[in-house]
Amino acid sequence: MEAEPLDWDSLLRCLPVAEIPELLGRNVPWFAEWLAHPTYDEYWKSLSVARRYDQIKVPALNLGGWYDVFIKGTIGSFVGVREQGATQSAREGQRLMVGPWFHTSSTKTKLGEVEFGPQAGLDSRELELRWFDYWLKGEQNGIQSEAPIRLFMMGENRWRDFDSWPPAGTKVQDYYFHSSRGANSLAGDGRLDTRPPSGKERVDTYRYDPDNPVPTLGGNNCCRETIVTEGPYDQRPVERRDDVLVYTGEPLAGPLTVVGPVEVRLWAASSAVNTDFTAKLVDVHPDGRAINISSGILRAPFRDGYEAWHELEPGKPYELTIGLTPTATVFLTGHRIRVEVSSSDFPRFDRNLNTPGAATAEKTEVKAADQQVFHDSGRQSRILLPVLE
Predict the structure, then answer these.
(1) Cα–Cα separations (whole angstroms), residue 54 to 57, 85, 87, 91, 93
(2) Element of type H or E holding 29
(3) Helix, strand, or coil here: 92?
(4) Kind and range of the H or E run holding 2
(5) Is residue 291 situated within a structural domain?
(6) DSSP-based three-state secondary structure for 293
């Protein structure tokens, strides 16, 4: 007898979240353990590979995708062992290769709604066999002479080799949020450019309701597209919502190459003591398609790190750093850079119920939060892009 199909919408919206295993009808012993440790305490530290890079003694092939849920860890392990590895062989034997894929999709050339061309597909098994033939069998097959980093440059849709991460020659360029010039434009229908705001600008506002979260539309997800979409998608359905702020640049006069980590510095306030803020980097094509490139989220009480929980003072502006997923993309001539700001991306991330306390296991109360985003001379909200010159 076939099992009944799961009601994923009910499962993902289950409150309290501690009852998810019961609703699932399965014993998930580790789930309660995870919920019991909402901060980065000794439980999580004992499981951290990043805290043990200096104990790693062997070379490693770090293979990932720009839309892979593990991309930060893939790049972090490459950099960490290269700098801290226990042996010269481990430090010098790190290799990084990143394609336009989500998790375990390296043979595909069309991801989400974007066709990346014939170069995007990769037989990872062949690559892995060459790697092990060299390191375990001593076969001189040329791997040792290849660049340590090979990245698929989205937009250009071709591979490039580099010697370091971020690549040499990258410089951080700030792109600032501004109010729209249009007299009839809505709050959040804003501009994006490299000029810092020089005076007062309208404060952008929206209401985040956990009962009506912004739906996930592609991105760094795993591992079944029938549950949640993965990869690059046109974000215009999301951008039409009242709880998504949009800041867009002018059409580019020439290509702009962005390679490296991305972050948003957001000046924001909330009516809640505990809420989330999200940010998304988007490539707007001349035909209007708005393709997600990179995204991230911050639970605001963790603004000083995941070991400390400091709730917000309602109505007080804070400068928040939202780390987005790293990328290697070329914004082509005529394309526009866009940043989206909101407070949810569900079900990729669990909903913040906007209620006090870091522990979420038994929460059932849901509150709406009124959010403010500032971009004036004293509070310069912006995205920091690693531009390769």
Answers:
(1) 8, 5, 9, 10, 14
(2) helix 29-35
(3) helix
(4) none
(5) yes
(6) strand
pLDDT band at 199 (very low <50, low <70, confident <90, very high): confident
Give the end of a domain, one of 127, 162, 197.
162
pLDDT exceeds cutoff 90 at 376: yes
Number of Cβ within 10 Å of residue 204's Cβ equals 24
Does 283 map to a domain? yes
Residue 350 confidence (pLDDT) above 90:
yes
Do residues 293 and 242 share a domain? yes
Domain housing 152: 44-162
**Per-residue CA distances from 26 to 16, 31, 116, 223 (Å):** 16, 11, 39, 19
> Is 176 found in the same domain as 154?
no
What is the per-residue pLDDT for 2? 46
| CA atoms within a 13 Å half-sphere pointing along the CA-CB vector of 72 | 13
The token duo for 337 is 């850079």
Q: Are strands 110-111 and 114-115 parallel, antiparallel or unpaired?
A: antiparallel
Asked whether the beta carbons of 293 and 320 are under 8 A apart, the reply is no
Cα–Cα distances in Å, from 70 out to 226, 251, 260, 288?
Answer: 20, 32, 15, 30
Residue 4 binned pLDDT confidence (cut-offs 50, 70, 90): low
**How far apart are alpha carbons 352 and 365 in whole angstroms?**
11
27 inside domain: no
What is the structure's pLDDT at 373?
A: 97
197 prior amide bond cis, ω within 30: no
Per-residue pLDDT tens for 151-168? 999 999 999 999 999 999
Q: Identify residue 229 by its one-letter amino acid code.
A: T
Nearest-5° Cα angle at 90, 85 to 93 = 135
Mean pLDDT of 243-254: 97
Assigned domain for 7 exists: no
Q: Are residues 141 and 209 in the same domain?
A: no
pLDDT value for 136: 95
Q: Residue 6 — pLDDT band, cuts 50, 70, 90?
A: confident
Residue 224, pLDDT score: 84
Cβ atoms of 356 and 311 closer than 8 Å: yes
Whether residues 218 and 358 fall in one domain: yes
Same domain, 224 and 338: yes
